[in-house]
Amino acid sequence: EVQLEESGGGLVKPGGSLRLSCAASGFTFNDYNMDWVRQPPGKGLEWLASISSGSDYIYYTDSVKGRFTISRDNAKNSLYLQINNLRAEDTAVYYCAREGGGYKFPLDYWGQGTLVTVSS
Amino acid sequence: DIQMTQSPSTLSASVGDRVTITCRANHFISSWLAWYQQKPGKAPKLLIYKASNLATGVPSRFSGSGSGTEFTLTISSLQPDDFATYFCQQYNVFSWMFGQGTKVEIK
């Protein structure tokens, strides 16, 4: 069974940093591209970043370029999101998700999410 | 960036109704469109990929159509479990983009 479990969220002061983790199991992690998506409370989904299976290709949405860094450790079956200079508008549930296999496939499995709250 | 616009934002319907949600892209995305269902407090669930392909385990009352810039999600006979929020997403080019969502409420 495919499982994705995020961790690392919490209450952070503006300007602070956080590293989110996503532990993957139930599939061959190093065969799949992985993504981060966030959802502010009561709002819609925002795709944040994607990393290819071998970390060769990385993409970000414009609004987080320079502050967010996606990475992965295939030996540990883990995905990460480093978030720097946190702002109030970064308050959201952060989901990791797997891109389905093959050429161009959307997000077929999602974690349960981890809540990041940015407040003084 | 490719922008995705869903309509309506909210939809009130009864069990058994046929429901249609529309998603428009402001640039050509071929058939690289997905639909997700999200219930409160839960992660989104993939329903449809490549505009019209049902994801594994999704009931056949769900269907998707369209290509290019205009797409629809149809629920042929709304069931109690279907009251949720639905999002479209383009995955033709990065940066991927979601529609703003359509909440399907009980009438």
Structural description of this entry:
The complex is a heterodimer of chains A (120) and B (107). Chain A is mostly beta strands. Chain A is 0% helix and 50% strand. In chain A, the strands form 2 sheets. In chain A, strands 2, 4, 5, 6, 9, 10 and 11 form a 7-stranded mixed beta sheet that branches. In chain A, strands 1-3-8-7 form a 4-stranded antiparallel beta sheet, with no helix packed on it. In chain A, strand 7 and strand 8 form a beta hairpin. The model of chain A has no long low-confidence stretch (mean pLDDT 97). Chain B is mainly β and 107 residues long. Chain B is built from no helices and 11 strands. In chain B, the strands form 2 sheets. In chain B, strands 2, 4, 5, 6, 9, 10 and 11 form a 7-stranded mixed beta sheet that branches. A 4-stranded antiparallel beta sheet of chain B has the order 1-3-8-7, with no helix packed on it. Chain B is globular. Chain B starts with a strand and ends with a strand. Classes of the chains: A mainly beta (120), B mainly beta (107).
Which helices and strands appear, and what pairs or packs with what?
The complex is a heterodimer of chains A (120) and B (107).
Chain A: E1 3-7, E2 10-12, E3 18-25, E4 34-39, E5 46-51, E6 58-60, E7 68-73, E8 78-83, E9 92-99, E10 107-110, E11 114-118
Parallel strand pairs in A: 2-11
Antiparallel strand pairs in A: 1-3, 3-8, 4-5, 4-9, 5-6, 7-8, 9-10, 9-11
Chain B: E1 4-7, E2 10-13, E3 19-25, E4 33-38, E5 45-49, E6 53-54, E7 62-67, E8 70-75, E9 85-90, E10 97-98, E11 102-106
Parallel strand pairs in B: 2-11
Antiparallel strand pairs in B: 1-3, 3-8, 4-5, 4-9, 5-6, 7-8, 9-10, 9-11
